[in-house]
Amino acid sequence: MKKLWLTQFSLRHPKAVMAVTLIVALVMAAQFPKVRFDNDPENMLAKDEPVRVFHNRVKEQFALYDFVIAGVVNEQDPDGIFNPETLQRVHTLTEQLLSLRRSPDGLPQVQAGGESRTVDLRPKSLYRRVLNFVFRHDANRLFTSDGDSAIIAREVIAPSVVDNLKQAELGSLKQEYLMPVPPTTRAEALVIRDDAMGNPLYKGTLVSEDGKAVCLYIPIKDKTFSYNVAALVQELTKDWPAQDRLFITGLPVAEDTFGVEMLVQMATSAPIAGLAVFLLLLLFFRRLSLIVAPMVLAVTTIVCTMGLLIGLGFDVHIMSSMIAIFLMPISVADSVHILSEFFDVYHRFDDKRKAVEHVIGHLFMPMLYTSLTTVAGFASLATTPIPPVTVFGLHVAFGVALAWVLTMTFVPAYIMLFVPKRTLDRITATRNEAEGEHSTAMTRSLEWLGRFSYLRWRAILLVTLGVVAISVYGITRINVNDNPVRWFTSNHPIRVADRVLNEHFGGTYTAYLTLEAAQVGGNDCATKAAHLAAAAQARFGEAMPEATREFLAELDSLKQLYCNVRTCDTKDCLVRLAAAAERIDGKATKAWNALADGINYLDPDGLTMAKLTDAVGKLDGVGQAEKQTLFARLAKTPNLAGSDLQDKALAICDEFTSLSFRQFVSEQEAELTAPLFKQPAMLRWVNEFQAYLAQDSLVGKTSSAVDALKKASYELNYVAPPADASPAEIQEYETRNRSHYSVPDTARACGQVFTQLEGMKKKDSLFHLVTRDYQQLNVWFQLKSGDNRNMEQVVQTVADYVKANPPPVKLVDGWAGLTYINVVWQKKMVWGMLRSLSSSAAIVFVMMLVLFRSFLFGLLSMIPLSVTIAFIYGLIGIGGKDYDMPVAVLSSLTLGLSVDFAIHFLERAREYQKRFGSWAAAAAQMFKEPATAISRNAITIAVGFTPLLVAPLVPYKTVGFFLASIMAVSWLGTLFILPALITGLERYVFSRQPKESEDE
Amino acid sequence: MNSRLAFLLPLLALALPAAEPTVDEIVQKANQVSYYAGKDGRAEVEMTIKDDKGGTRVRKFVILRLNGEDGAQKFYVYFKEPADVRSMAYLVWKYAGDKDDDRWLWLPALNLKKRIAPGDKRTSFVGSDFLYEDVSGRNLAEDTHELKETTDQFYVIRNTPKKPDTVEFSYFLVWIDRETFLPRKAEYYDKNDKLYRTVEATKVETIQGYPTVVESVASDLRAGTSTTNAFSGVEYDLGLNDNIFTERFLRRPPREIR
Predict the structure, then answer these.
(1) Contact A763 B191 (CB under 8 A)
(2) Omega within 30 of 0 (cis) for the link into A14
(3) Number of neighbouring beta carbons within 10 Å of residue A99
(4) Do A755 and B53 touch (CB under 8 A)?
(5) How far apart are CA A102 and CA A94, in angstroms?
């Protein structure tokens, strides 16, 4: 009886055991105030995970922030949100958000239109306040530690603070905010609508294409501010009329909200689960004094486990928040077995100590192994590459082990100290009566079940095979998918906002695709030389064949020198080419330049041909030939005077000065040395790429610097048709203007347009889309769905496109953004879970071999849980439920929990077979007491998880539903399949069984 | 103690100038010194824009300036580097009083001359941390000025906008050299009374008798960016032709900038 020393010690020194338990529990509880919460799904990946590192690098490089998205929708007004009242509200809200500051008494304070307002975001309900206090959530935390606003004001995207390039009077270009002041008339409001719709960066992002919605993108300094920022927006807009509906969305809000609600869930689910288990036990045993022990044991286990977690410095994450609810039913299971049995046998001993020793001696091995398998199931989660899951698995494993130790020590000590003999005597006296209807009904149906399993074993095995076959089919249809927004039930405000806003907009889920050259340096020397030669031929070949040949020869010799001998030093090469070009230009070009210069400085007022002739005559460095050419040409347009004459003379000069090789080289220098994303060919490729993506149903919209470039090029080149233009002329103007809505033809032109964008009112906004050196581009994807599955499809679409349409320069692309990060950790999770499932299956099987010392028994014990797992996953596949994080976590613990029933069943089966001599006799007995205990256990655990079904958060619901199903299926599997199998395999099962050395 | 005071007082009286200038005189003079030196002027500028990660972009341009009547001025800005913006040019006509500026832009690669509508002057100058207003001067009538402090070297002026809703600052402080009246430093405070922007004259030389800023730095403390302007080839009173400041010279830059 060596294995019982723990129990015997506890029976002898119950007070010491109680004291130690109490002290340990208190020490662990003392860790609680140190608790920190972490609700960032990004932490599902380790901090040094490449995708996170890359994501953070992209965020840093392009100054991207996490956004709280506040959408305003007006579906009543014929003009949608573009009516003066709604726009005024949006403007006021923007001003308020921009002005957020801390009031002297520490509350958030905002200002709009000179009106200052202090708000208090603390919840009104006392319960919420208490929770906030307990979880140390400060609802008014909207400031960084040095008192700055959580909102990055200069990066807010809202109509009042985004740039707008538009045509203004006198053919000028106006640069202002889209809505510098809120409109007062319908006409003004519609101008704002047209301006917004005319900008590809805003349409579908800032304003919806149907004009019914506008989104404010509120960048926050840290994701953990998003819940409070969302609350602030709600507070500031709560007096808005019903037609202006406000929706808040964005992954950070979803994630942060989930975190906050998770705490509430934790604070309610675990106690309710405790209560449910308590009531159930009360129903089974009808004696308060008996069932207090398992309850105290459960609470102690949870307190110690959470205390350990907090004490070790781990954050409470979404996974670890479920620890309490897992431990509650699991930890009482063993004591339920003990109490159930104790209750049955006490009358035989009439002595507490002897009864306890008998019961524990009897149940020791099954309890040890059921605990060990559960520990193995959870501990196997440690092999997943997802830190929070690892922490969760190891802590639950610890809790289960602790519960076992407490069952061996605390429960006996409790019985010795607190269960009076009188009570037990009374229970014994009224035993049969107390069992009551319920128990008899249960026993009766269990006995019927037993007979059925024994007689109809072939049918059962056939049905099982059928179920397994269907399940396997179901498993093949499993959809691996997750989306943090779907963690909320469908009527949750977050889900509603998600639906409404994604209906109106290009999509509220963001991912970023960064593009950069696969190798620095771009084109090689020979390509550049070929480009230069072609360009020179095209520009000068016809007008100056002689000089062109000379230039090309010069270029060729430089090419020989630089491309073959030295490394390709483009800059140096171009300097030498420029010198040669200047030589080739010769006197004529210089003369024309001097001529043009001289004319340029003349005063246009009162300029006549005579004055011009006189002035030109006095110019130095200009030969007679050029002067004669000029005046011969001017003679063709007589009667010119003043600035017209000056302009005409300059235009003639320009024809000749433009034939300058020197200028050509300096222009080409800009082309050849242009960074990747100033090169027209590259930008046009991006343009085509985006056009292709626009047709993809999953991609709501993409935005890039190319959109900004095209828009700016259009506005800069825009020429309004004259007032008296005919319709045909207007059409012509239109066509001309529209043609400029494109990537300009040269790198210089792209560079010059980009320079205009760099100097916009909202400084550096261009650099969210391209790096300052124009070597890396960021394509902003807006997806309509945050489902990982869809994100994966988009990644594939992009990869396919790039493969089929190779860019002019080989690119490397990289994905970032929260939507993409979720894909990565999910993938890791699926494979991690599969690995942990197989490893824990192997461990459990080995344990079973050791326990039963029989290969066949080991195999048998694995069958109910295998069927259960197949069934559950088949159900998920056929039912169309996505395989997401909570489902994945369930796989491992299914194993640990459902093998328990098989262990108990097979242990008893073997024992009874020996006792009664035949399996037929044993089978009948099996469905009396052992089946009852197994059933009670299954019901306890199932009921313990049912409170999760009413949780407002889907992952909790999923866990609750599937755990209850797992219990039901493995209970059925154990009681149907095992006896059926044993009946079928009776000869093998019992004949080859080795003689056991008795323990007692 | 009394006797010592009696001894010091006459000395103090000697050290002080006959009369301290009033606040208005100080700001008027400072404005004149910093934006109107000479009849005209020319400077080559090397502008280094530094981002929050320490990366830099360099732009080189030449500025020509011609003073007109009553504080009116004309500017010609011609870009030399980087290669892609070479020959890009701006023309600005600044008027006396409240009248808005006229601005033109020349983009050579697009063969495009475009008039730019007057806009907010507190907008970044070509993507740098300097604002248009830093380059051409802020209208003194837009703020109320008070002398906050007089130190050994500086008059510290506190400038509060008359229309606070039109600007992003709640006030700014300017340190004006008591000797040269050249502003040496400006600090801008936001509506939460927090310093968020500084502009500083980091190097000053006297050129042709005019105290001249030859290096200045503007810093955006919130974005973590800063821009340094290094001035070279500064000349005053070149006798610039008024014609230079016309659209015609955008396409064909004047000799003075080459």
Answers:
(1) no
(2) no
(3) 19
(4) no
(5) 17
Phi, psi of B66 (to 5 degrees): -130, 125
Sequence letter at residue B251: R
For residues A193 and A211, the answer to whether their CB atoms sit within 8 Å is: yes
Both tokens of A984, joined, read: 């079928």
Burial of A64 (0-12, 13-18, 19+ CB in 10 A): buried
- Distance separating alpha carbons of residues B37 and B235, to the nearest angstrom: 10
Q: Residue A162 has which token pair?
A: 């985004």
Q: Under 8 Å CB-to-CB from A937, ≥6 apart: which residues?
A: A333, A336, A337, A900, A901, A904
**Residue pointed to by tokens 């499993």:** A478
Q: Give the tokens for residue A903.
A: 């262990």
Question: Taking CB atoms and an 8 Å cutoff, what residues of chain A touch B254?
Answer: 600-601
Cβ proximity of A849 and A393 under 8 Å: no
CA dist., res. A576 & res. A853, Å (int): 89
Q: Which domains does chain B have, with CATH numbers?
A: 21-61+122-243 (2.50.20.10)
Q: Is there a contact between A716 and B126 if contact means CB atoms under 8 Å apart?
A: no
What's the token pair of residue A550? Answer: 């000379």
Interface of B with A (CB under 8 A): 51-53, 55, 57, 82-86, 88, 105, 107-110, 112, 114-117, 119-120, 123-127, 165, 191-192, 194, 220, 222-223, 225, 241, 243, 248-249, 251-252, 254-255
For β-strands B171-177 and A101-102, DSSP reports them as unpaired
Among residues A770, A768, A766, the alpha carbon closest in space to that of A757 is found at A766
A667 with A732: CB under 8 angstroms? no
Q: How many angstroms separate the CA atoms of A410 and A20, rounded? A: 10
Question: What is the helix (H) or strand (E) element at residue B106, kind and residue range?
Answer: strand B102-107
Instruction: Tokens 């009946």: give the residue.
Output: A983
Residue with tokens 């001289």: A598
Tens-digit pLDDT profile for residues A428-474: 655 554 444 455 677 778 888 777 777 788 888 898 899 999 999 99
Per-residue pLDDT of chain B (258 residues; tens, 9 = 90+): 444 445 544 444 444 555 678 888 899 999 989 899 889 999 999 999 999 888 899 999 999 999 988 889 999 999 998 888 888 999 999 988 778 888 899 999 998 999 988 777 888 888 899 998 888 888 888 899 999 889 999 999 999 999 887 788 999 999 999 999 999 999 999 877 889 999 999 999 999 999 999 999 999 998 899 999 999 999 999 988 888 898 889 988 888 887
Give the pairing type, strands A172-177 and B112-116: parallel
Q: Which long-range contacts (CB under 8 A, 24 or more apart) does A798-804 make?
A: A798/A513, A798/A693, A801/A689, A801/A692, A801/A693, A802/A689
* Cα R_g (chain B), whole angstroms: 20
**Substitution target from A169, A601, A657 for chain B, most B beta carbons within 10 A:** A601
The complex scores an ipTM of 0.89
Alpha-helix runs per DSSP H in A155-250: 186-197, 226-236
First to last CA, chain A: 7
Full-prediction pTM beyond 0.95? no
Residues of B in contact with A747 (CB under 8 A): 84
Chain B residues with CB inside 8 Å of A600's CB?
A: 248-249, 252, 254
Nearest to A684 by CA among A765, A774, A746, A613: A746
Question: How many C-beta atoms surround the C-beta of residue B89 within 10 A?
Answer: 22
Nearest to B248 among A600, A746, A760 (CB): A600
Q: Would an 8 Å CB–CB cutoff place A646 in contact with chain B?
A: yes
In this complex, the residue of B109, B119, B252 whose CB is nearest that of residue A749 is B109
